[in-house]
């Protein structure tokens, strides 16, 4: 069953007129009159709908059931990833992070980070596409770029801080953790000084992801996967 994103959806919605973009989306997906599909507002609400009418002015959906927090993992995971020179690769991180259930994506400015940031509108488009792909009900937040140094001293805002490290452990401690921060460096990783500051965190978990050197986007997705596995 396919999923659409309509921010105006609410629990009192009975009929929804799709905008031109989502109407084209239903056509591309070959959804026919009478077919069921999901609609999410990105704020925790998902509706089971039926395509009631196909029209050039905008297709019409009828809502038949509502669900809250559908397909959400139940944890607040923030992925803070170093900005890459290749924006396509950073967009890949955004897409896969959303599919895996993150709540927030923070582009990090570090000593070795790239200088070319993904535009907000571009990032938001990728996030919405991944939201629909994964049939999630909460739209993750994409923040402005943040200096890693601005996070120093704020790690206690999370129950656990996860850092991928080749000298890290194969085990992480996430019992009773609801809010988790995952730190992923850019190409070249974090600097020695940055690592020293991160090591001051009282709730730091350093995990070894592989015996081989991973690209930044691979490390980000692997770290997320390890965290999710340990939360189950």
State the end-to-end distance.
25 Å
What would you call the structural class? Answer: alpha/beta
* Sheet having the most strands: 7 strands, parallel
Spans of at least 5 consecutive residues whose pLDDT stays below 50 are none
The amount of beta strand, in percent, is 25-35%
Number of helices: 6
How many β strands by DSSP? 12
Classified by CATH, the class of the largest domain is Alpha Beta
Helix proportion: 25-40%
* Number of domain units: 2
Key descriptive features of the protein:
232 residues, Ribosomal Protein L25, Chain P, Alpha/beta knot, 2 domains, five-stranded mixed β-sheet, 6 helices, elongated
Give a description of the structure.
There is one protein chain. The chain has helices at residues 20-28, 87-100, 120-134, 148-151, 192-198, 216-231, and strands spanning 3-5, 15-17, 36-40, 45-53, 60-68, 76-82, 104-109, 141-142, 146-147, 160-169, 179-184, 204-207. By secondary structure, it is an alpha/beta fold. The protein folds into 2 domains: 3-68, Ribosomal Protein L25, Chain P (Beta Barrel), CATH 2.40.240; 76-231, Alpha/beta knot. The strands form 2 sheets. Strands 6, 7, 8, 9, 10, 11 and 12 form a 7-stranded parallel β-sheet that branches. A 5-stranded mixed β-sheet has the order 1-3-4-5-2. Strand 4 and strand 5 (60-68) form a beta hairpin. Helix 2 packs parallel to helix 3 and helix 2 packs parallel to helix 6 (216-231). The longest helix has 16 residues, at 216-231. It is elongated, with a radius of gyration of 20 Å. The two termini are 25 Å apart. The model has no long low-confidence stretch (mean pLDDT 93).
